[in-house]
Design a protein that fits this description.
The protein is α/β, with parallel strands linked by helices and 445 residues long. It contains 15 helices and 14 strands. It is globular. Zn(2+) binds at residues 222, 225, 244, 247.
């Protein structure tokens, strides 16, 4: 009976691979996108155990990268490190991180009969589906980056997600390596409860503390006893140096000393991404020199501090899809001397249909500095209203331009960007794809 099941699985796998590769060829030939989701969606109907059958063939194991922010950048950096060491890596590089996207990424690296000849598979995973795919994937390493409120209409609060993570991760083999963010109270506590091998990453840089805890803060209560945590300081939202005065719970000790490591790209959030990838790479046996060299020469993933030259103007795209991420991209903008910013707010399925999160963003800091703010997107007037409410001084030098048409908004923002300055574009996810297509004429998905 077992041999018969194996034969049927192989037959289904071979057929699924053939169909998936045909679909991929058709989509790309017709320039309908990069076919990062559809092939997996069709293939799984033919071979329901597709994810398990493919992941079992990965020689050195599957690495999962989960969390609210930073998945794409961290995954790409770790991919770059492993490739520099000569490893063959399967990776969902476009950021398609639901089940169909994971399957498509693995299918991309198979031959025509379904053989997957790679050393590692690095898969960024949507935080909500992580518990669902752990059993079929049986990962070797799980990177837990952070948990913030994101798309509440779909996911709920962070404590709900963390409890599901803890419950399912604890059932994995003891040799599984889990790497949580020590500065996130919820994830630090998660790591302290697991029976598996646990390493932590985090910051030790008091000079980078925020002046105050921002509005977009989610987990300032002890995950163990519920008491209000004491913070020496916070770096981003609720990420910081904390302890509980009631039960003694405190921040876990990071494996790497953060001040000794270079940082990829702009923004403190990218220091977290660097440390997460470096911790995982060292655990996989990569030498420190290779890691540092890769970090130093790393290029941004699409839309994540991606830099372009358009019509002689310098453009930087900073994905801004939730309160914490947007506060951090605003920090990047306000620390620069550039005077023009384009904000694009959509409310489509990839963004989350509830845009009330913009009222948790510290847009006051962006408005206070003046300059030109161009606003566009499906919810252009919601964003414009938020910015107007942030304008405490009616005599401020803010030039707010509302433009429904995205192409016109981009053209206006480019026109108003002075020579020698950078146009910062802060879009939600679907808006980022539209912005990139408008700027370089190429779709991602």
């Amino acid at each position: 009976m077992g041999n018969k099941i194996q034969f049927i699985d192989k037959l289904r796998l071979g057929l699924a691979v053939s169909v998936a590769k045909t679909v991929t060829l058709g989509v790309r030939s017709l320039r309908l996108g990069s076919a990062s989701v559809l092939p997996g969606s069709i293939a799984r109907r033919i071979a329901p155990r597709l994810l398990e059958l493919l992941s079992q063939q990965v020689k050195n194991g599957v690495i999962l990268v989960a969390g609210t922010n930073g998945k794409t950048t961290t995954s790409l950096l770790l991919h770059s490190i492993l490739e520099r060491k000569g490893y063959r890596v399967a990776h969902n590089a476009t950021g398609a991180n639901l089940e169909n996207g994971l399957m498509t990424a693995l299918l991309e690296s198979t031959n025509l009969v379904g053989t997957l000849d790679v050393d590692y598979a690095i898969l960024e995973v949507d935080e909500n589906i992580l518990p669902k795919i752990l059993a079929p994937l049986q990962p070797r390493v799980i990177l837990c980056l952070n948990l913030f409120r994101d798309q509440l209409d779909r996911y709920g609060e962070v404590d709900t997600i963390s409890k599901r993570w803890t419950k399912v991760i604890s059932t994995l083999p003891l040799e599984t390596v889990v790497i949580p963010n020590a500065d996130d109270p919820t994830l630090s506590y998660l790591g302290q409860q697991l029976p598996q091998r646990v390493l932590f990453f985090g910051l030790n840089e008091p000079e980078n503390y925020l002046d105050a805890i921002p509005h977009a803060v989610d987990s300032i209560y002890c995950p163990k006893c519920g008491h209000l945590l004491d913070y020496k300081g916070v770096y981003i939202s609720h990420l910081g140096d904390f302890h509980c005065p009631n039960c003694g719970f405190s921040k876990s000790q990071p494996t790497l000393d953060s001040p000794e490591w270079p940082q990829i790209l702009l923004g403190l959030y990218n220091k977290y991404n660097t440390l997460a990838a470096a911790t995982a790479a060292k655990e996989l046996g990569v030498d420190e020199a290779t890691i540092r060299d890769t970090v130093t020469n790393f290029q941004a993933a699409f839309g994540r501090a991606e830099e372009l030259e358009v019509n002689g103007k310098h453009v930087r795209i900073l994905l801004s899809k939730n309160p914490v991420g947007t506060n951090e991209t605003i920090r990047v903008v306000t620390q620069s001397t550039d005077t023009t910013t384009l904000l694009v707010l959509n409310d489509r399925t990839p963004d989350g249909t509830d845009v009330s999160w913009i009222w948790d963003v510290d847009t006051e800091k962006l408005v206070e500095r003046g300059g030109t703010l161009v606003v566009s997107g499906d919810r252009v007037y919601d964003m414009a209203l938020r910015l107007r409410y942030s304008q405490n001084d009616p005599k401020s030098q803010l030039n707010l331009i509302v433009e429904e048409d995205l192409h016109q908004a981009i053209a206006k923002a480019l026109e108003l960007t002075p020579a020698g300055e950078t146009l910062h574009i802060l879009p939600t996810y679907s808006a980022m794809l539209e912005v990139r297509e408008a700027l370089i004429g190429r779709k991602i998905l």
